[in-house]
Amino acid sequence: MKGIHVAIIMDGNGRWANARGLPRVAGHREGARVVRKVVEGAPGLGVGMLTLYAFSSDNWGRPQREVGGLMRLFRIYLAAETQRCVENDIRMSVIGRRDRLPEPLRRAVDGAEAATADGSRMHLRIALDYSARDALVSAAARLSAGATRDDFARALGDGAPDVDLLVRTGGEQRLSDFLLWECAYAELLFTPRMWPDFDAGALADAVSEYHRRERRFGGVPVAAAG
Ligand code: FPP
Question: Ligand 1 atom closest to Cα of 195?
Answer without folding.
Answer: 10
